[in-house]
Amino acid sequence: MGAFLITFRESLEAGVIVGMLFAILHMFEKQKRDIYLWTGVIAGLICSIIFAWIFHVFLGGFEGKNEKIYEGILMVVACGLITHMVFWMREKGKCLKRDVAEKIHVILKKMTLWMLAVLSFCAVIREGIETVIFLNAIDAQGNGAISLVWGAFGIITAVALSYGIYFSSHKVNPKQFFQISGGVLLVMAAGLLAHGIVEFQGAQWLPIIQKPLYDLSNIFSESEGLGLYLKALFGYDANPSLIAVVAYWMFIGVVGAFYFRRQKN
Question: What residues make up the domain containing 152?
């Protein structure tokens, strides 16, 4: 389920931006220039797939202590990227359409049409690279096969919704979706941070101090049922360490308070 939310949001983010590019280009009555945008989109998808393959081949296959270090770094990096993505989209989303329109106007005026391909390429490749990193971090917490299925479903759903937004933007409010999903993603980021700390403790990069702080394995196991999904989605740990718990709730408290306070303002 965590993979679905990640791929859905990332694909929707790219879809909304690409949809804006097409809509604004048509607003300037330049439909014949669509080929430049499609070229950028296709190139972005191809490069994203290549990046995923490189990431899997050259950054996979670690064992023992190295595996724990790799997964710990991956989860902490994913936590940072998710946090940055949530705050970036909230701030830039307010004036995104205006900024995109201004860029397209300059491109058409100067006739540097190849820049249309660059704009759509950047919109796709940015989300593609982030998705690869996020999914690898989530896979380290749960079942990779299940994550792959949910991830594919998320992409398909986002593409369908992006299509709907493009043709009926007056009925769909992506801004509200990004606001709500932003809070959920920050909870996911907190879980990745806590799990990353556990991996670092396993690799002896961080002290354990006390583990477990509590043990809910007999009551609410993380290896079956609802606990398995909560682990994959939010990094649920039935027997966490003291440092992981403190880091989790500090992240939720500090980052969450800043996010919702700024959003309210």
Answer: 2-264
